[in-house]
Structure formats: C-alpha cells, structure tokens
Amino acid sequence: MLVAAGCGEWLAPPRDVPFPEIRPEPAYEALFPTYVELCALSQIRPLDGPFGGSAGHAVMYLKGACKDEAAPYPRLRRCRRAASTADDPEHGAGVSVNQVFRNVNWVAVPGKALFYQGLLPPEERFTRERFAATVQAAIEGDVYAGVVLRDDPDTGAPPALADFVTSDGLGTDFALRLTRTLFCARLPVTTEMLDEIIDFLNDLNRQYATGAADYRWSGIHDNCVHTLRNALAAASIWEPKSINLIKLRQLFQLAIPANEVATLAEMGSNGPLGDFDAIYGEDAWRTALLEFGWLPTRHGALLSILPVHQSNDMYDTTFRQLILEGPLGRGTTQRVRELFLDERNLDLEDNLIHFRADYERILAGRSEATPEAELRGGRRRTVRRRYERYIEAQLAEVRRQLEELSRRNDARTSRAGTPSAGSP
C-alpha cells in the first residue's frame, strides 16, 4: 500500500517496511508483443553521498523498441522479433533522461536485466565490488556511446565517463533497483503506436546531437517526465505537456514522476471505456481510436512494484517518493492506494476476466436505434462504428488470451505433478 501525509509530502509504505515485489507473471510477455511501462523511482539515497531530488526520477521501458547499435548517438529501432520472454536480447530497451547530458536528451539501455536489476542476482549482496562491476558492464555495453557530458562546474571540463557513471548513471539510467524502489504502470500498445514513440524520441536526440538545438535540463521547464510524457503523447495516449514556457505558465505544465505514473495507471484501469460520448469528445482518445485502433482503458493495463535491493552496502533502502497533491485534498494519493488494492490491476487473469465482462457489457448495451446526430452520416457516425468494431475485436482477443493462459496454467500444473525419474 502507498500512503502519504499531506500536500506535496512523502509517499511511503506503512511503518517504512519494504514493499513486496509485484509484477505481471511471465505469461504476459507471450500475450502482449509490445507495451510501454512508465515508472516512478524513489529518491536515491547513497550511504556516502548527498541524497537525490525529493521527486525521484522517471524512466520508461519499451517492449519492442531496441537500442540501435549502429547509431553514432543514442537512438532506437524496432526490435527484430516479438520476444516472448524477458531475457530475449531483442525484448526492448529502457529510456532515461539525465541532466548531465549535453548533446542528447536520453539514453537507451538494452534489455530488462541491465535496465532494472543491473545484472546482479537477487540473492546476492550489493557490495562495492559489485557496484564497480555494474558500472563496467554499462560502459562495455555502450550505454553511453556517443554521449557528450556537461562540464563539471568544479573542474570546467566534462567528467571522465567512469566517474559520471559511478556518480550519476548507476541508479538513474540503469541498475535502477540496486538504488531505488520503482512503481510502474504498464500499458499494451500497437506496433504503429510504438513507431510513433520511437520516432519522437529519435527526433528529439537528433536535434541535440546535430547541434540544431541546445539541450538544457530543467526541473520545471524540461525534465525527465516531460520527455516521457510527450513521447507517449506522440502516440495519442494522452495530451502533451509544454516545455520552456515563461515561468508562471510553465508552473501549469509541471511533470512529477509519481503523478504521471498515477495518471497513466488510472487511464488504463478506470477510463470511460463504455462512454462513447466521452471518448469522442477527447481529442487524444478519438485520434488513437481512428489512427491506431486503440483506447487507453484496456486489458493488459497492470501495475507493478519493484522494490529496491535490500541486501545493500551502498544505498539506504528506505523508500521516499514525493507525490504532488492538489490544494483541496489528497485525491492523487487516495487514487493510487485504491489502484494498488484492486487485484485486477495486479493480477493478469483477474485483469482479463474483468475486461472480458466490460467488453461484453458494452456490446450488450448497444441500441438498435441510431442517434439522431448520426442519422445523416458524418464523422461521429464513422467514429462510433469504429468504436464498436474495436470493442468486438478486444473481446475476441481477451477471450483468446484467457484460453492461452488457461493452457499455460494447465501445463504448469501438469509439469509440477509429474514424478521425477526414479520416483515411485
């Protein structure tokens, strides 16, 4: 459970006990070939250095988008195959923005293992020696190939790569769980949507790498969350947020990691899926439906909690995460709590069963009468017909997925009950 105390204060588990690990089961990878996962990271708290910012950090993992190894600076490409397991080298890439970068906005970290866990086995202790080995793995993996770093204000020159990765890369761009707790919202997307996200991110890095624009990170004007939110907006998942407006106007475009994850999670779980008028009236959703055959409230929208590596010689593992509340109450915190208490947002089978019922209810409620506003044809009629065909297709897909999940569960039960060699 996530709790907070007051407007804009700390989000933390009760009694500061470690969070349990909650993440979609392995079958999810076989059922959903492409997805986005937006994560809010808790404040980084090294034992021998200053703590990071109170708002934490935000990153995004893209299944189906891989690091382009041939590019002279960080770029993404479509993965060469649809991965069915998380350890497939063509599974995807993590995207992280870092304020120390000068010629790019973000880096791509290949694969879930290096991005989330840093290759450290869960049962091993995170020691100083393991820290050094993890830093070296990122350098040898060319995570920062082509990246130019900003000058160190103390020396007037860019830091050595190993020094930067040690102080600012590990725990911010990769090996995230070795330093922080993550809570994430995962949302399946179409391959066409993934292409739009890739193109947006590549265009962003290209303008800085070629000198067409100068990248300057700003906590208010252009931070890690602005990049990730606007990448998703390129695929019509939601509306973009403006950057670099005059200060007073920019305050209305603040992007806070925990708040953005909460917003995405709520869209995936509780959006107006059965309300055609609401969908038609929302520009981003109407566009998503017409261009991509997709709506954000859908099956496969799940939450996860990835707790920090507790056996840790390098970091304070106490969880601290700031969430920005509105002036009239604790609405965001309460919504996050409710999302994590609902099993359909955590368990794949419960999620599929819930949305099967939703899709069936929507189709059963269709009226034979054509609304007067659509009797003469036009755009609204076209959108409604697309909407109804979309719901039909989603119902067919979720039924197939439930059958596949049942077969997998039966096979796993059968294997567990098979006697080993030599057993009576």
Describe this structure in words.
The chain is an alpha+beta fold and 424 residues long. The protein has one domain (3-352). It contains 13 helices and eleven strands. It has helices at 27-31, 112-117, 128-140, 161-169, 191-209, 224-233, 247-250, 257-270, 276-281, 283-292, 331-341, 348-364, 379-417; strands spanning 3-4, 10-12, 35-41, 57-63, 65-67, 76-78, 92-97, 106-110, 182-188, 302-306, 321-322. A six-stranded antiparallel sheet has the order 8-7-4-3-9-10. The chain has a three-stranded antiparallel sheet with strand order 1-2-11, with helices on one face. A two-stranded antiparallel ribbon has the order 5-6. Strand 1 (3-4) and strand 2 form a beta hairpin. The relative contact order is 0.15. The model is unreliable at 1-11, 248-253 and 420-424 (pLDDT under 50).
Helix count equals 13
How many β strands by DSSP? 11
Give the C-alpha Rg.
Answer: 22 Å
Query: Share of helix among residues?
Result: 25-40%
Structural class: alpha+beta
pLDDT averaged residue by residue: 88
Largest sheet: 6 strands, antiparallel
Envelope shape: globular
Low-confidence stretches: 1-11, 248-253, 420-424
Helix and strand run: EEHEEEEEEHHHEHHHHHHEEHHH
- Tell me the β content: 5-15%
Strand arrangement in the largest pleated sheet: 8-7-4-3-9-10
End-to-end Cα distance = 46 Å
Number of domains: 1
